[in-house]
Amino acid sequence: MKMVADTNTFLAVALDEPEKDWLIQVTDGHDLVAPAVLPYEIGNALSSLVRRKVMKESQLAAAWDAAAAVPVELAGVDARASMLLAGHFRIYAYDAYFLQCSLESKAPLLTLDGGMKRVAKELDITLVE
Known about the structure:
The chain is an alpha/beta fold and 129 residues long. The protein has a single domain, classed as 5'-nuclease (Rossmann fold, 3-Layer(aba) Sandwich). Helices cover 56% and strands 11% of the residues. It has a 4-stranded parallel beta sheet with strand order 3-2-1-4. Helix 1 packs across helix 4 and helix 5 packs across helix 6. The two termini are 15 Å apart. The relative contact order is 0.20.
């Protein structure tokens, strides 16, 4: 089964967050898909952690490599439809890309973001919980 994985799930695994074991368990045997913007969003999140002094610059490469090691299909999504979702729900475009990816692929969404879960439920997107 395919499932759309949000950026925060890749980061949680790469940064050895408490959810890591659960995420590995629920994704085992499944094919992950994400919008093609995923690598850029991971890079932005990691650089933000360094900028805010949550992570050291010397840790960037290892964190990037760990996130990049997770097999995922990068998919194009309808950017216009994503922007309409973002506007309607007053959410970030990046979140809308993942929701749109889930709608287009008819795949459940795996996210750790409570706000995205709320919107997914309003859109009748199945959540991996």
